[in-house]
Write a structure and sequence with these properties.
globular; 6 strands; mainly beta; about 80 residues; six-stranded antiparallel β-sheet; about 40% strand
């Protein structure tokens, strides 16, 4: 099964992915790098806030909350999920 590249904002809760890129136009690009949101790092989507405002992810062992608009500028490659 081929892994798709999608926007972080489109990932469901509980899914894991590898970051493939951050939009050069992203307003938080440097801040993202400071917390480990850089190409090659793995992350997991922990939660979506009600009404679509924030997304909480786990990266480098820390939980980070992002605005959905910012998460839309982060490209990730979905990891294969094995279903039991």
């Amino acid at each position: 099964m081929e892994r798709r590249i999608v926007a972080l904002a489109d990932m469901p809760v509980g899914s894991k992915a590898t970051i493939t890129g951050v939009s050069p136009d992203s307003r938080g690009r440097k801040k993202f790098a400071d917390v480990g949101i850089v190409p090659g790092e793995e992350l997991m989507v922990e939660a979506h806030a009600p009404f679509g405002g924030l997304i909480r992810i786990k990266v480098l062992g820390s939980s980070v909350a992002l605005h959905r608009d910012d998460a839309a500028g982060i490209a990730v490659k979905e990891m294969e999920v094995l279903h039991a």
